[in-house]
């Protein structure tokens, strides 16, 4: 995937070794499989898809499209999961929308 991802992975492993006993790494097989699934579907695949999007549509448009993610997550949380839409969530939503407008406006 790249240097940054490799370094981040190695630092995570180093932190685990420094802060926990090695016996903590012994977990049920289900945990291993769920971790592999999570690493593949929630980390490697999205990073790969973002890199492909940058190659196809350019970095600017890919970044703008990426800003839609937090908004759709909030919407699905409220509609599907019944999560509360608080003033803090509204303030964060306004900041995301403001960021979209700031970064999508034409250059002077």
Walk me through what this model shows.
With 108 residues, this protein is mainly alpha-helical. Helices cover 78% and strands 0% of the residues. It is built from 5 helices and no strands. The protein has helices spanning 3-19, 29-57, 59-66, 68-79, 87-104. Helix 2 (29-57) crosses helix 3 (59-66). The chain is extended and about 55 Å long.
Describe the structure concisely for a colleague:
This protein has 108 residues and is mostly helical.
Structure characteristics:
mainly alpha, 78% helix, extended, 108 residues
Output mean pLDDT: 88
The termini sit apart by: 36 Å
Order of helices and strands: HHHHH
Report the biggest beta sheet as strand number plus sense, adding barrel if it closes.
none
The backbone outline, from C-alpha atoms, is extended
Helix-strand makeup class: mainly alpha
* Secondary structure tally, helices: 5
Number of beta strands = 0
Helices, strands, pairings?
Blueprint: H1 3-19, H2 29-57, H3 59-66, H4 68-79, H5 87-104
Helix pairs in contact: 2-3
